[in-house]
Records
---
Amino acid sequence: MFRIETRGQIVEFLLHYKLKKICEIGVFRGDYLLHMLQSNPTECIAVDSWKQENVKKWWKISTAKQVYRIFMNRIRGMKNVKVIKGDSVQVSLLFQDEYFDFVYIDADHSFEGCLNDLVHWTPKVRIGGWVAGHDYDAKTTNSVNLAVHHFMKFNKNNMKNFFVTKEPYTRSFFFQRIR
Ligand SMILES: C[S@@+](CC[C@H](N)C(=O)[O-])C[C@H]1O[C@@H](n2cnc3c(N)ncnc32)[C@H](O)[C@@H]1O
């Protein structure tokens, strides 16, 4: 199985598995989204609430409005990018099941928030497609880790090829949907 060692190798991963319809949940200023766009997807959906209470956790010196404006400027003119501003779970309801080839989750890092995203976004990935997410083991909290393992406990028959990247911390998890 082809796997990557750091999330910086995501372009190789997307190209290897021909993942062309992609989505990021939790975009912030778009650093990682811009990186993924180097794989030239046919469609890239960018989901973030850009709400002050969510954004302030990540970048205390900027307002949510500033972060949103920075992101919109960065993706201006990119026809394959569609931006949806809203709560991740609410936005998931806009898509039919199996719509995406790949979803990357990096939004609410609490146990409930991450679990909710896994529950709502995994069905939006086609069979054979991949779900991934950031901060599997963050420095300050293991809530994402706990949520991922809780989700896997109840979905082990629906997924395979689980792996975690090899950075010293803030690793990313990946798994493939099989049913
Ligand atoms: C860690 S930042 C994302 C960083 C980005 N993925 C990157 O690597 O460049 C987390 C983002 O998730 C967003 N977020 C948090 N909870 C959310 C929710 N419930 N719905 C939508 N977006 C949310 C925040 O607004 C913030 O911009």
Note: The radius of gyration is 15 Å.
---
Amino acid sequence: MQRSLLPFILVPLTLLSWLRAYIIYHEAVSSLYGVQITTPSKNVSVDLPKFDNLTIGDRRENILYFMQVSDLHISKYYKPGGASHFLYFLSTALPVVSPSFVLVTGDLTDGKEQYYGRSNQIIDEWLTYQTALQESGVLDRPNFWYDMRGNHDCFDMSSWNSEQNLYRQYSVVKKRGFDFMVEKTFGRYRFIGIDACPKSGPSRPYNFFGYYEINDMDRLSEKLLDESSNHTFLLAHYPKATLLFGKTSKGEAFEDLSEHISVYMCGHLHKLALGLGDHLQIYRPTNYLELELGDMKVNAVYRILAIDHDLVSYIDVQLPLPEIPLKNPPPPADGFSILPEKLPYPPIILITNPKGSAYTMKYREPVQRIKYSTHIRMLIFSDHDIDTISIFLDGKLHDQDVYYKGNSRNDKEYIPLWTSQWSPSNFDDGKNHVIVVKARDISGQVGESKLIFRVDGERSSMNGGISEFLMGLDWAAVGQSLFFIAHVTLTIYLLAAKLYVTYYPNHPLIVSFHASKKTIPQSFFRKTFLLVSQPIFFYTLYFYLLAIITMPLFIGHMIPSSPQGGYGLFWIYGIQFFQNLRWLPLADTWRHAVIDFVFSIAIVVIWFLVITGDRRWRTKWLLWGVILWLWRGSELYKLSQVYGHFVFWANVQTFWWLFWGWYGISKGIVS
Ligand SMILES: *[C@@H]1O[C@H](CO)[C@@H](O)[C@H](O)[C@H]1NC(C)=O
Ligand SMILES: *[C@@H]1O[C@H](CO)[C@@H](O)[C@H](O)[C@H]1NC(C)=O
Ligand SMILES: *[C@@H]1O[C@H](CO)[C@@H](O)[C@H](O)[C@H]1NC(C)=O
């Protein structure tokens, strides 16, 4: 009787735990989605822009261009790349390209300390940033440089007003995001930069995701509805895949607001690793483009974007450095304290008509203008005069001359425009075509640019492969789903097995211990039954599983620079500060949850299954168990080096870790 009662109590207990988990999750994200979750009926307008009679010809009008750089990671301790690349960017690329303005999408500084993976705001890095901008003349040009914070610029920061917020003192914008309109005779172009950093920034490693709460969404919605523009560019440090957009108080999601934007510009992911992030771009279902830019830090890339007759084009350029990343900072040039000598720079070619058809936005751009255009147009940025330009269309040399229709570099608004007459109707067959432009300057340096175009206004595939796929995922939702599925599956499996062995203790798989050979599934179930029949192990594991979804995992000094306010509870749902019990809906906690589930629960359970009921396996697998135990312990120790010793002592994971270490020894060696 007694034996059968205890497991039965687990059923309501499990259901109550799930209910509590549901309630806490909603509390944790209430600042993002509000209490009731309603979705307004979608009303996406899919009208094509009206045809108008503006013809793309050879005149220097209806065109502007600007630049983007991202992820500078100016670092005090890590020399390769970083500041060195940025200094060359300022001394060489900026004067050669001479854009109307520059947008910087975050991670201006690195903020990483030398030891133990610690991180905070380091004043030397901010001084380097400011000095470099000062020496390059950027600070003397109003409305030229627009910078925003990235997650590295808010490591270890209790609030926007904190002393630690060096961005507030040393950046150019100094505010939370920016919003400006470029007013031209031919159109209006809006640039909205949003700061989606955590309102209180923990130190590394749990400060990777951004979020945008209800009041932020309300402000953004207001801005987007406020004024009309030919194009609106939304800028954020985080790609949408790593930014939790909440809802407006009216219940609109980001998808609803995105009807008002043409391009979402971001950084943050650098180029990922192993070539996974070479094409981090995507065309979204609500008809805007999301374009991630690789980093200045290691890859030394920057982007030039042009809007020509309302068609948006861009090109990514790598600094012409002898090695990438540059190992050592360059010596300063005469008259500068840090800016280096200018580098020789081969011509850079940005073809603006025909635009690259992988980035066509027919619901945002007047794409029909390509078909009726009279000239190929390109911007060529060069240090020296251009000697020859050759255009190849589908591999054939274009037979029309190329003329300079730009102006002098000394003019107020420099536009190095080259044009050549063409007949787009020759290419109007509904297929992809290739244009290649080569330019040689008088010093013999050669630049080349190639793109796929179409004249029918349709989009070509981006062929972004895995990069495009990764951009399309919501990484936080993936982490949450993985954790949810794994957790529920294991819980139900253990509970079902426990109830089964309680009511059928004489199951042949359990009783006939040394019976004949078993199939793999039989062996698996036999081991499960034996494992759940060990009460100490079963109940500890089961209560641990319920604990991680209903209790905080640990107490951490999440913001070490803040003596009182920095302490908080680390739940899988987010971080809750002791001060005001305020929630930080930081999706990083899900990353922790998934990793911990895999390596501290799933693999541990598998290890116990392997050694259970089979003496042979015990000695063979003992070493792996020890290695796993030491590794998981070292991870806990490492975390305590960043977020304080409480992470070790006030941590439910530490108790589980100690328990299974002890139990593994008692099973594996002693018995
Ligand atoms: C969509 O919006 C238009 C204009 O704002 C309105 O006339 C129409 O009824 C809306 N459609 C739906 C399905 O709400
Ligand atoms: C624009 O072009 C179309 C077709 O060529 C023509 O019918 C129309 O009259 C033009 N409109 C204006 C305002 O010039
Ligand atoms: C910008 O929008 C206005 C208003 O819709 C339009 O008249 C103008 O032609 C557009 N500019 C360009 C360059 O297309």
Note: The chain has 17 helices and 25 strands.
